[in-house]
Design brief:
mainly alpha; 2 strands; single chain; 15 helices; 1% strand; ABC transporter involved in vitamin B12 uptake, BtuC; globular
Length: 335
């Protein structure tokens, strides 16, 4: 009876500890930042609180976030893929080429996903089979995939997509809720469950923290990494479908620079760039933060190059600040 009473008394303490830890988490800080940005935007522009404008704002992050969810798992496992934007370009080019010969929407979707998977497998082969560094491989394929698009298209563009293909990037499910937003939510849930509720997710964390230890514990490290590259390629294919559908055309320069924004979104979401830690909820909130910032700047007519500078500074800052904080704390701890 005494033990049961003691355990009952400890329940509020445990709940208090969890609540305190949650409020001190990176995700809680990001959420506070998102709310602050939302409030600031509502005062700086009279057009911000319009429901349709807010709906349009989701296009600033949904396509990038789809890739960011897969990228988060890859970075947690200690790897990275810098070719995602070029995969979008190649997948979009393949879809545009097929559309010129009368391919329908189902065929275009299959082509986009297949090209994404093949590009992911190409990266995975060099990293997991040949043992090359992923950053070197994907810098190379970043040029390779986009270079193929430029060879095929040159200065031209593909247009004339089927009318129903526009549904993916321009359609609405209900009122101001876009198809892309629904896809974003579904994919976020899938990756959240995959990373946080499955053995595969635990294997990803283990590999990122200690790949040698994970190997000796029975985890098939290279197989897991191969799958992660496939997922990143697949999500790039999904993003290519949505982006091409929204724009209604394909140019070889499509999605240029998107890889920087994807990585920034992942790191801003609390994923350690060196691997081993991070969460999908953090990436979700980071996606909203970046979307709100870019949309707010757009309403203020801030040039795109300034936004690019901001994204670059944000990436450097998010990576550098924890390191600076650790150095300051270490100095204070010295007698």
């Amino acid at each position: 009876m005494t033990d049961a009473t003691s355990q009952t008394r400890h329940i509020p303490d445990r709940l208090h500890s969890r609540l305190y830890a949650t409020l001190r988490s990176w995700e809680a800080l990001l959420l506070a930042v998102a709310v602050a940005i939302f409030i600031v935007n509502s005062f700086t522009s009279p057009y911000f609180l319009n429901a349709w404008n807010l709906s349009d704002a989701t296009f600033n992050f949904t396509e990038k976030a789809m890739i960011a969810f897969a990228m988060a798992l890859l970075i947690i496992a200690g790897e990275i893929d810098l070719s995602v934007a070029s995969i979008i370009a190649l997948a979009s080019t393949a879809m545009g080429f097929a559309a010129q010969y009368g391919a329908g929407t189902p065929e275009l979707v299959i082509i986009g996903l297949t090209v994404g998977l093949l590009c992911g497998a190409f990266n995975a082969f060099f990293v997991t089979v040949l043992g090359l560094p992923s950053i070197v491989v994907t810098i190379g394929t970043m040029s390779l995939f986009r270079g193929i698009s430029f060879i095929i298209l040159g200065d031209g563009a593909y247009r004339g997509y089927p009318a129903d293909f526009a549904w993916f990037g321009q359609g609405y499910v209900f009122w101001v809720i876009t198809v892309e937003m629904v896809l974003f939510v579904i994919i976020a849930v899938i990756y959240g469950v995959l990373l946080h509720k499955t053995n595969f997710g635990r294997a990803v964390y283990a590999i990122g923290n200690n790949p040698t230890g994970a190997l000796f514990s029975g985890i098939r490290v290279q197989r897991v990494k191969f799958i992660l590259f496939l997922l990143t390629g697949l999500m790039s294919g999904v993003a290519a479908i949505c982006l091409t559908s929204r724009l209604g055309s394909t140019r070889p320069s499509i999605a240029t620079g998107m890889e920087l924004e994807v990585v920034t979104m992942v790191v801003l979401g609390g994923v350690n760039i060196l691997g081993g830690s991070g969460s999908i909820p953090g990436v979700v909130i980071a996606a909203f933060v970046m979307g709100l910032v870019t949309f707010g700047l757009g309403l203020l007519n801030v040039p795109g190059i300034v936004m690019s500078i901001f994204i670059g500074l944000l990436l450097i800052g998010v990576i550098a600040l924890p390191r600076l904080w650790t150095m300051i704390a270490a100095r204070r701890a010295k007698p």
